[in-house]
């Protein structure tokens, strides 16, 4: 009887294991990613909406003079919210950042730059969107002012992101049209650890970085130190990669 009882248990375990294996084989595979096709934007348009292709929507926009002619140029970001999109097998939230210069006659705009790598970042189920909650134009209804993460000042444009992934917090990238391209001329990072706020303000044009440490519970100015960076070629927006992976150069 004892041998029969053990044999029965072994047979029952075999049946249960077989059923479990069968259930695994019948589990549907995760939905495959669809490779993102980044469109070439129109060369010209009457307004910002003329540069938005099918399947994409306006995520952020602002205006200001970027080429020194005194006319308000367009700086805008487009987003594709379709599910299961990827680049080379990696899930991403696709974005395009672009600039269109105002035409000399005051009518319409001409595309000056578009980039699909800077703001297209990998996404995971637990990750947050770096540009989420920043007065997005794609909100319903769209806010009257949806510059969100964008700013134009003194002939340069800035892109602000929330980068808690690497512990730095808020980051601002500053670009300028120069030397036949769009170059990164500044970077500011603000992070908070307990009661201490640290700000790194880098001016790549002058090769200086100012680090300021302050107690957030105090009204004092904090302590600042200045560092001279080694001379290096300025990074171009088209080759520097995405903002999440940006690490410098600091040294």
Characterization of this structure:
The protein is mainly β and 251 residues long. The chain has one domain (34-245). It contains one helix and 16 strands. It has a seven-stranded antiparallel beta sheet with strand order 10-11-12-13-14-15-16, with no helix packed on it. The radius of gyration is 25 Å and the shape is globular. The termini are far apart. The relative contact order is 0.12.
Structural features:
mainly beta, globular, single chain, 251 residues, 7-stranded antiparallel β-sheet, disordered N terminus, 1 helix
pLDDT < 50 runs, ≥5 residues: 1-29
Strand content: 35-45%
Radius of gyration: 25 Å
Number of E strands: 16
Strand order in the sheet with the most strands: 10-11-12-13-14-15-16
Put simply, the count of helices is: 1
Note the main sheet: 7 strands, antiparallel
Which oligomeric form is depicted? single chain
What's the quick description here?
It is built from one helix and 16 strands. It has one helix at 2-26, and strands at 34-35, 44-45, 57-64, 73-79, 85-87, 90-93, 95-102, 109-115, 121-122, 150-153, 156-163, 169-178, 181-193, 196-203, 208-215, 223-228.
Give the SSE layout.
Elements: H1 2-26, E1 34-35, E2 44-45, E3 57-64, E4 73-79, E5 85-87, E6 90-93, E7 95-102, E8 109-115, E9 121-122, E10 150-153, E11 156-163, E12 169-178, E13 181-193, E14 196-203, E15 208-215, E16 223-228
Parallel strand pairs: 1-5
Antiparallel strand pairs: 2-8, 3-4, 4-7, 5-6, 6-9, 7-8, 10-11, 11-12, 12-13, 13-14, 14-15, 15-16
């Amino acid at each position: 009887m004892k041998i029969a009882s053990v044999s029965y248990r072994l047979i029952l375990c075999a049946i249960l294991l077989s059923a479990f294996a069968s259930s695994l084989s019948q589990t549907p595979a995760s939905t495959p990613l669809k490779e993102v096709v980044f469109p070439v934007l129109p060369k010209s348009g009457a307004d910002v909406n003329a540069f938005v292709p099918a399947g994409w929507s306006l995520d952020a926009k602002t205006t200001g003079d970027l080429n020194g002619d005194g006319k308000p140029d367009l700086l805008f970001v487009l987003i594709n919210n379709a599910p299961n999109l990827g680049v080379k097998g990696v899930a991403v939230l696709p974005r395009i950042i672009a600039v269109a210069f105002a035409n000399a006659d005051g009518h319409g705009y001409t595309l000056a730059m578009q980039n699909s790598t800077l703001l297209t970042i990998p996404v995971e189920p637990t990750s947050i969107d770096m540009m989420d909650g920043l007065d997005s134009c794609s909100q319903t209804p769209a806010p009257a002012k949806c510059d969100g993460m964008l700013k134009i000042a003194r002939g340069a444009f800035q892109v602000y992101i929330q980068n808690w992934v690497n512990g730095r917090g808020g980051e601002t990238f500053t670009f300028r049209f120069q030397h036949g391209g769009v170059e990164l001329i500044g970077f500011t990072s603000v992070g908070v650890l307990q009661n201490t706020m640290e700000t790194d303000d880098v001016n790549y044009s002058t090769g200086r970085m100012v680090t300021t440490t302050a107690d957030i519970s105090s009204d004092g100015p904090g302590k600042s130190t200045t560092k001279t960076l080694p001379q290096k070629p300025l990074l171009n927006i088209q080759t520097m990669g995405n903002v999440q992976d940006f690490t410098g150069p600091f040294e």
